[in-house]
Amino acid sequence: MSSQAIIQAPARVRDRLFIGGDMVESEADDLIAVISPATEEQIGSAPSSTPADVARAVRAARTAFDDGPWPRMSPAERADALQPFGEYLRARVPQTAQLITEEMGSPITFSNRLQAPVPVMLLDYFRQLAVTFPFEEDRAGLTGPARILREPVGVVGQIVPWNVPLILTMVNLAPALLAGCTVVLKPAPETPLDAYVLADAAMEAGLPPGVLNIVPAERSNSEALVRHPGVDKISFTGSSATGRRVAALCGEQFKRVTLECGGKSPAILLEDADPDAVVPALMPYAIMMSGQQCLAQTRILAHRSRYRQTVDAVSEAASALTVGDPHDPPTEVGPLVAERQRRRVEDYIASGRQEGAVITVGGGRPANLPKGWYVEPTVFADVESGMRIAQDEIFGPVLVVIPFDDDDDAVRIANDSKYGLSGSVWSPDEDRALRIARRVRTGSLTINDYRIEFGAPFGGYKESGIGREFGPEGLSSFLEYKTINLPNGTAHSREG
To answer: Locate the Aldehyde dehydrogenase domain: which residues (predicted)?
Structure first.
């Protein structure tokens, strides 16, 4: 590979779909315009696929799975085949980070630190895991010996959102491919361009035709992928409302499904936690990606004895955040992804006022940013748990601070949600914090910090989803179990 190829930036204009290992024309006449959230101007375009295009992609994936070499390769062979795929992505991390910032307004520092390098890290992790993962095991059994096989589920339809597009793609794409599945990927219409970096990587790596197929489409065409009888499993990341529809359609066909949906995650600050020390550590996870993250810690629960101190600390931290051009490295809060998203957030801010909550910081649009879909970081105090702003996923830079009386009350409020995705507990008494964490009905929590552990299962309770991603559990979600009962009293060696 030449140095020129390594530094070449991804194209901003794409005019073909990636199906069956080739770039092919779409049957649609229109293109998806990619609009910069910071300038409100078009920065690129991608083809819009039709249901017929989706069907072509499924056929290519189906042929690759039923007749191609990919599912029949050993896990180690698949891991080796994906090495040049990963190296292609690794060489283009800065260019990919820049592209994602242009597409959806992610601050460039966040894009450089997470948006572009984490997908490579995830692929590396799953490649290593696949080599040691127990795809076969023997058990003594109760009535006789059995061999347990873990086999690829088949053709996977993957639907990903726009907020951390390549990360949320690779979270499931890597384990699906390493399990031996073939994939039809439908990126979000706001961020179709970064998905083409994967198409370029697949061609560079020489992946067999049909193993990966990419069909950008508007939301209305996502249903064609979910409904298609040639798809064995759907992996969906997005809103709980859409996830409910996806689950219903999959249920009609007994189609396997993994859903990673919304969140309204609590950060519980016990009375022995100093707000002036905790809040600066919490804030990056409370308004990450301008609040456009399902795991953002947007419900801050503060002990009543420290409530005003906590409100003041959160308000001061929010007002100090740098809001501006996402291409500028000091920027901490960029624009929202679309004008419709800004309208949604502003509606919630108005709702909070109407319900009697008090805005301590923000609540409007930055006066110095007339262009772009910006909303000021906003903090609500005097919030009750039943308020709309405390219950709904706003997906914007809006925080609510809710008082509690004791540990039981903190747990009650934390669990007073239709969501259960993530959360945090803050206290110098780690044993006490752990006891509270055990009682919160959510898929992951962190004590005295917030982090995502990619080697451990991640997913949600309640309306935050079905199934788990990351870790060995994420690989298992793309496998079916088969039991072969072996004859009693006979030694049997493994085959293959």
So the answer is: 24-484
| Per-residue model confidence as pLDDT tens digits over 167-192 | 999 999 999 999 999 999 999 999 99
Residue 456 lies in a domain: no
> What is the bridge-based pairing of β-strands 358-361 and 378-381?
antiparallel
The CATH number given to whatever domain includes residue 257 is 3.40.605.10
Do residues 277 and 244 lie in contact, with contact meaning Cβ atoms separated by under 8 Å?
Answer: no
Share of the chain above pLDDT 70, in %: 97
Tokens linked to 109 = 């520092």
Of 203, 259, 202, residue with least CA distance to 226: 259
Summarised one tens digit per residue, pLDDT across range 207-262 is 999 999 999 998 778 899 999 999 999 999 999 999 999 999 999 999 999 999 99
Residue whose tokens read 């088949």: 154
Tens digit of each residue's pLDDT (9 = 90 or more) over 21-40:
999 999 998 899 999 999 99
- Kindly report the CATH number assigned to the domain that includes residue 409: 3.40.309.10
Whole-angstrom distance between the N-terminal and C-terminal Cα of the chain? 35
Q: Which two tokens stand for residue 277?
A: 């020390």
> Residues near 127 by Cβ (< 8 Å), separated by ≥ 6?
79, 82, 83, 86, 174, 178
> What is the count of structural domains for the chain?
2
Catalytic residue set = 260
Q: What stretches of 363-432 adopt beta strand conformation (E)?
A: 378-381, 398-404, 419-420, 424-426
Q: Are residues 303 and 407 part of one domain?
A: yes
> Helix, strand, or coil here: 465?
strand
pLDDT at 493: 43
Identify the domain containing residue 123 by its residue range: 3-261+464-482
Mean pLDDT of all residues belonging to the chain: 95
User: Residues, the chain, total?
Assistant: 496
Within a domain: 458: no
